[in-house]
Amino acid sequence: MDLANQVAIVTGASSGIGEAAAMLFAEHGASVLLGARRKDRLEAVAARIRDNGGTAEVLAGDVQDDSYHRALVAHAERCFGGVDIALNNAGTLGRLGPLTEMTRETWDEVIATNLSSGFHAAKCQLPAMLKRGGGSLIFTSSFVGHTIGLPGMASYAAAKAGLIGLTQVLAVENGARGIRVNALLPGGTLTEIAPMDAATRATISGFHALRRMATPAEIAQAALFLASARSSFVTGSAMLVDGGNSILKC
Q1: Is the residue at 45 inside a domain?
Q2: What gap in Å lies between CA 141 and CA 132, rounded to an integer?
Q3: Which of 180, 54, 158 is nearest to 106 (CA)?
Q4: Tell me, what CATH number does 225's domain have?
Q5: For labeling, which of 18, 80, 169, 208 is most exposed (least CB within 10 Å)?
């Protein structure tokens, strides 16, 4: 098993990419600690993991709060003995619109949820990984703000681009200590925050060379690669899993 005897924290695990990754990590042998705000949804994901023979625990909270990340690490150490993998996946789009019409509240909320949460998470997770002799730290970023800009998404793009910069610095700071740090950049994915109407989804699908959106399970496979020893020489990367979105110009 790729992740046998490994312990993984996954935030944003109540739905979408986080849920799919948590299920896949557990299927491949990891003990998984699920984090998000919706405890009932987390419990449902954990129940499915256990029903499939996996190991999972739940701790609900807000990723904007640094004390929540301390609690996640402490819970993982208490339940499973440490932390080897972290997929910091929780995020929000925020209210979309031109920057000139964006409120400070919207800006702060998106930056806090998508970027500052990564700072809080890494500050707690890195020392725990060092206790285990190394690990894999992953941030869910985006192609938005990296290969393209989309109107109305200034705060989201800024936050997700910031995660790539954070990834690069942490990879350099911690590579010699056995910790790999990477950013995962999904393309359009069929999650709860994706548009529901068929016309909009068709338009978004057309942005991709594959002419479709991804399923959360497809993005989870890329997260598994970064979490496992199969990516042992991969660090500091902004790994595009975008269905060719970034290369399509017509």
Answers
A1: yes
A2: 26
A3: 158
A4: 3.40.50.720
A5: 169
Q: Is residue 1 part of a domain?
A: no
Q: Kindly report whether the global pTM for this prediction surpasses the value 0.90.
A: yes
Of the candidates 140, 142, 141, 137, the one whose C-alpha atom is nearest the C-alpha of residue 122 is 137
Question: 10 Å Cβ neighbour count for 50?
Answer: 12
Containing 225, the helix (H) or strand (E) segment is helix 216-227
158-184 pLDDT tens trace: 999 999 999 999 999 999 999 999 999
Write out pLDDT tens, residues 61-106.
Answer: 999 999 999 999 999 999 999 999 999 999 999 999 999 999 999 9
- Please check whether residue 23 lies inside any domain of the structure: yes
Q: Specify if 2 maps to a domain.
A: no
- Structurally, how many domains does the chain consist of? 1
Give the range of the structural domain holding residue 29, as residue numbers without chain letter: 7-247
Is the CB of residue 144 less than 8 Å from the CB of residue 132? no
Cα–Cα distance measured from residue 154 to residue 150, given in angstroms and rounded to the nearest whole number: 8
Strand order in the sheet with 238-241: 55-60, 31-36, 7-11, 85-88, 135-140, 179-186, 238-241
Q: Which of 156, 163, 204, 245 is catalytic?
A: 156
